Amino acid sequence: MSTSYEAAGVDIAAGERAVELMKARVARSRRPEVVDDASGFAGLFDASAFLKYRRPLLATSTDGVGTKVDLARRLGIYDTIGHDLVGMVIDDLAVCGAEPLFMTDYIACGKVVPERIADIVGGIAEACALAGAALVGGETAEHPGLLGEDEFDVAGAGTGVVEADELLGPDRVRPGDVVLAMASSGIHSNGYSLVRHILRTTDLTLESTPADLARTLGEELLTPTRIYARDCLELTRAGGVRAFAHITGGGLAANLARSLPETVDAVLRRGSWEVPPLFRVLQEAADVPQGEMDKTFNLGVGMAAIVAPEAADRALALLAERGVPAWVLGETTEGTGTATLV
Questions:
Q1: How do beta strands 178-183 and 152-163 pair?
Q2: Could you tell me where this protein is found in the cell (predicted)?
C-alpha cells in the first residue's frame, strides 16, 4: 500500500493557497528598506539605513498571544489575533525607545485552512503597518496528530533600532517624575487562562451580554490589543520621557517596577481612573480577589510613561491629539525600586 505526505495529514497545496491569499495584505506593511528575496527563504532589510545613526543599537523581542487563541478558535474570528501578536512583540521594543523595523511570524496548526491562515497573517500585517514595522517573513507549520484540526498557535519576533545615547530605561528615572497611563483597549493578551477558568466555572459564556457591557462577552474578550509603538516614539521625540512600561503579564505594578532604578519607587493611584466594566464583570462573576486582579490583568492601563514633571502636560496633550486616552497615574519618590497601587 502506497502512502503520501497528504495521507499523513499535511496538505502542501493548502499551504501554498494560504500564501497566495495573504500576499496583498502583507504587502501593505512594507517599508522602503525591505529588499525582496526571490527565493522566499529569508526576509531582507537594507542595513545601510543605520548609517544615519551615530551608534545604533538593535533591539529584539519575541512573544505569543497565549491562550487568547482558544477564544478566537471557539468564536471563529481570526483577523484580530494578529493585532494581539504585534502588540505583544512590537510594543516591547517601544519601551526602550526603539523604532520598530520588521517582524516575522510563526503559526502552528493542526490543519492548514487557507482562509483562516490568511486572516491571521493579514491581521499581523495590518497591525505591523499601524506600528510602522514591515512583516518580512514567516512560517506556517501543519502538525497533524499533535494539534486538532481547529487548533493553532501564533508567535512572532520583531527587531527595532535605537540610538545608544537615546536608550530609555530605569537609569533615567528620578524622584519627582510623573507617571502617565495610556488606556488599554481591553484585556489585551494576558490573563486569558484565568478568563477561561472563569468561563468554565461560572454562568458566564462567550454569548453572554452582561448588564455593564454593550457587546457580548466574546466580542469584548477578542477586542484586539492597542498598539502604542508610534505613540511612544512621538512622545520620545517631544522630549522629557524617562522610561516606558508595557503592562502585560504580571499586571500594572510589577511591570512598572521593571522600569524603576533601585533607588526610586512609584506610587500609582487607583482613584486616577475608572477600571473598565469588563474587568468588574469577570471579577464579580468568580469572586476574584483584588490582589489576583492586580497581578493578572492590566485593569485598563496598557502602557505607562515616566516623564519629567515639566513634560507631563505636553505629553498628555500629544496623546490626546493622537486619540490615546491618557492621564496622570502617579509619581515617583525616593525608595527601593517598587511600584505600589494605593
A1: unpaired
A2: Cytoplasm
